[in-house]
Amino acid sequence: MLDNPLAITTSSLGLHPSHSLPEKVHAAASTGFSSLEIVYQEVVDYGLSQNPVLDVFNAARAIAQLCRSLNVSVLALNPFKNFEGHHSPRSTRLESARHWIDVAVALGAEHLQVPSQFDTANSTGDWQQMVQDLQQLSDLAASRSLRVAYEAVAWGSYINTWEDSLRMVQDVDRGSFGLCLDSFHVAARLWGDNTVAGGMQDDAWPALEASLARFTDSCQLDNVFYVQLSDGERFAPLLSSQHRFYQAGFPPALTWSRHMRVFPLETGLGAYLPVAEIARAWLVDKGWKGVVSMEIFDWRMRDESRRPMDNARRGLQSWQKLVKALE
């Protein structure tokens, strides 16, 4: 029986401006989620919606108080992006990091989530520079009793697989720096393709199976801080310059991620990625017992009528369906 603590991201609970952060907290709590990943911009937006207006720190404290009153913890503040290896001065980036860390502390968050660098034009792939940047970020976070959860995104410029992110964790060599594993990024990098008929890469299954076998054999679970699960909706029509979600210069996987990520196994909504296979490797074969977080970005949630409670129920039903499939 899988009994992992279950979290959900605020982006998974609604994407319309009327879907307020407090409404999302209430929805998550009443549906049984034990913790939340909170998007930074939603804290800002909540503060701006108050009368009088709250700055981001007081907004974060108010949300933290609400979470405590509902017995919901804050798993992470996200996404602190394009940090390591950037051409801008490290001192400037660390000043930004201090601000984010202060907000995370005000929220009572356990983690600052950091996606791997994808601003290719303004960054370097120098591995040692990235290691040193992330060491300083980790030390800064640790000084405030915060951990950094590092996520290899499928469109990352230099790190886009779990293997590369694990190598970074090992080289940074800080107890406050570990992995956030996301099923979407593994599937989109190795298996799925939203630009071709069939929606799969040529060597999809062998590549995925080999990667999951390597994970089971070689990744120590103490390097993992938490796991995220989501599925991907099949593109029909295929992604092209004529598609409604197309944005020039965006990698196909990024467009997929921002618009057509649904909860695991929502096949009625077009979900088709091998989430069950990935989850089986992580949760059953490897035996991950820690937090599992649902993180999706579904275009349907931009509809005002799809309230956070509806979306929270979708997330819980998805988890229950996945557990049944794995058992």
UniProtKB/TrEMBL annotation:
Name of protein: Xylose isomerase-like TIM barrel domain-containing protein
Sequence ranges assigned to domain Xylose isomerase-like TIM barrel in this UniProt record: 26-320
Record field: transmembrane: none
